[in-house]
Target: MoxR protein
Amino acid sequence: MDKSDSDIYVSIEQLRKLQYQAVGVNFTPRQAVNSVLNGRYSSKLRGRGLNFEELRHYRPGDDIRCMDWKVTKRTGKPHIKVYTEERERNVYLIVDQRAAMFFGSKGKMKSVICAELAALIGWRIVGAGDRIGALVFNDDSASVIPAKRGGQHLAQIFKSIVKQNHQLGASNNSTRASDSLNQSWHKTAQVCGHDSLIIYIGDGNGWNDKTTHLMKNIRRHNEVIACNIIDALEQKLPSMAQMVVSDGKLQIQFDALGKNQQQYQQQIESKLTLYAQTARKYRVPLLTINTIDPVSTQLINAFRRGGE
Model:
C-alpha cells in the first residue's frame, strides 16, 4: 500500500498540523458536580482558589469563608463565591496500533484516526503546560514514553506512533488480541502512579474480564477516558448474498447473509455491550469516534456531550 496516502498511513507532519485544531478541545466541559467529566483538569472548590468561577446562592455545607457579604447585604440573601483551582496531573495515552486497527471501509484507517486523536489530545495537554506520556502498542510489543512537558517530548511520542503505524500492513495478523491489550493496561498500571489521567484510544478488540479488572484497578486512583474508534462496515455488514473482501493483494468471497451475518453481528453487539457496561459501571466516559468525520470536530462534540 502507498505509505504517502494520509488516509492509510499517518505522518509526523500530519500530526504536527493538528496543533491548531487542538485549540477547541476542552477537557473541562461545564458539567454538573456529579458528572463523570467534572474535575478532569480542575476541581470546583468551596474555598479559596486561583480563578473565580461563579457567584451563587449559599447552600447548606458551603464554606462561610467564601461568603460575599456585599452581595448578601445588597440582595438580602446569602451568596458565596465559587473558585476553580487548577491542578496539575500527568496524562498517559494508550495508543492502539494493532493489526485490527488497520481497517477502514470509508474515510481513513482506524489506525490513522487513532494517531490523529492522540495528537489532538497531546497538543491540548502540552498547550496547558502539563506532562504527557504514552504507551504505544501493537500485537507483539509496546513502547513506553514517560510523562514529560513540552513540544519536543510530544514529538517523541509522535515518532513512536508513526513508527508502529508504518509497520502495519495487510500481512499482519492479530491472533493475540486479548494478550496484547491486557499487557498494555498492565504496563500502564506500572507507570501511571496515582492521580493521573489515562486515555485509551483504540477499538477495544480483545477486551475481556481481565482487561476490565486491570482497568478497574487503575481507575481506583486515577481518571480514565476511553475513545472507541469504530468503522461503519464493522458495526453492520451489508445485506448481500455474496461479498468480496480484499486486503489490497488477495481477495475472498463469502456469504454475507444467513448464519454468517447473524454470528458476526452477535459478536460485535456482545463486544460493544461489554465495553459500554464496563464504562458505565466504573464511571469511565466512552467517547465514540468514527473513521469518516473530522477527528477534531468529533472530539469537541464528544466532550460537550459528556461521554456516553
